[in-house]
Hints:
With 361 residues, the protein is an alpha/beta fold. It has helices spanning 33-45, 63-70, 90-103, 124-142, 180-189, 200-215, 235-245, 251-259, 267-278, 308-320, 333-343; strands at residues 7-11, 50-53, 78-84, 108-113, 147-150, 155-158, 173-176, 192-195, 222-231, 284-286, 289-290, 303-306, 325-329. Strands 1-2-3-4-7-8-9-13 form an eight-stranded parallel beta barrel, surrounded by eight helices. The model has no long low-confidence stretch (mean pLDDT 91).
Amino acid sequence: MTSQPVEVAWFGALCDDDYEFLGVPEPHRASSWPHCSDIVRTADRNGFDNVLLPSGYDLGIDSTAFAAAIATHTENIHLLLAVRIGEMWLPQLARQLASIDQFADGRLTINIISSDIPGETLASGPRYQRTREWMRGLRSLLAGEQLEMHGDFVDLSVTPPRAATVNGTCPPLYFGGFSEDAKDVAAAEADVFLTWPDTVAAVAATVREMQDRAAGYDRKLVYGLRTHVIVRETEQEARTAAEQLISRLDADTGAAIRSKSLDSASVGVQRQAALRDSATDDGYAEENLWTGIGRARSGAGAAIVGDPDQVLAKLKAYEDAGVGAFILSGYPHREECDLFANYVLPRMNHAPLKPRWTPSR
């Protein structure tokens, strides 16, 4: 697609988010070691660069435990482990992450999640301040440095764990959020800023905004897009597959699924709802961008839908808008992984990201 490679990742479906028909759960697609490891191993065999291992509390299985296990069952794919900030003791989390990176021979990447933890509610400002402090703390400990921090949430003087990452540095930190507090933390502390599906123009505007914010800290970020895909040999087949996906979904079931997420009231989720409301009667917010998935999902709620050429062109449009990493998924996840790998992935210039950390001033 371009001389500059992009990262192309798949999705591990650890949070009971796999369906043939949205809103109709099937026992064999519930999150489990056999099912989720099959998805991740399939993505590895298919040549994806990375795989997101999402984290939930009420839903699915534990992402950290899964990452430790799947590290020894994969060969090339990186593991983008979602970590909910505040759920663990910071030094112990650093030790776990370093150990998993060893198991994966240096293939660990980290998705920082700043949502409320179970049983606790914090206002946006304090919650993101906690995230900022934890990100800085993880960087120090995973780089083998003494941590001296006396902040609002981290008050520690601690040596790094003996367990160290393969490269002796902190793995890349991926982070997303759309509130003012979240964007400031991302600009100052993240390696990769993640955004959810939106129109190409809106994604380009987000990239420009975050470039300006990062420049204020003398930093540069990589920009990632988390979106679903539905690719078939023809556009009509892809559109038919999209309609079939929601053909058994009723409004009450969709609302119940969306409300389960701890992030269901976030600014990003509100934007996904607005995108869905702005779409045409058949659910398209713009050419090949279908919002029907958002009827039963609180997070990323749109899919790129079309034939291989159309899907490739849409990805290229986002790439031209500044996106350097894609985190893709589709329903069912294993089957759509095969389809995308067959029709689109070989035509992309892709490789794992290795962003260079630039500290905030």
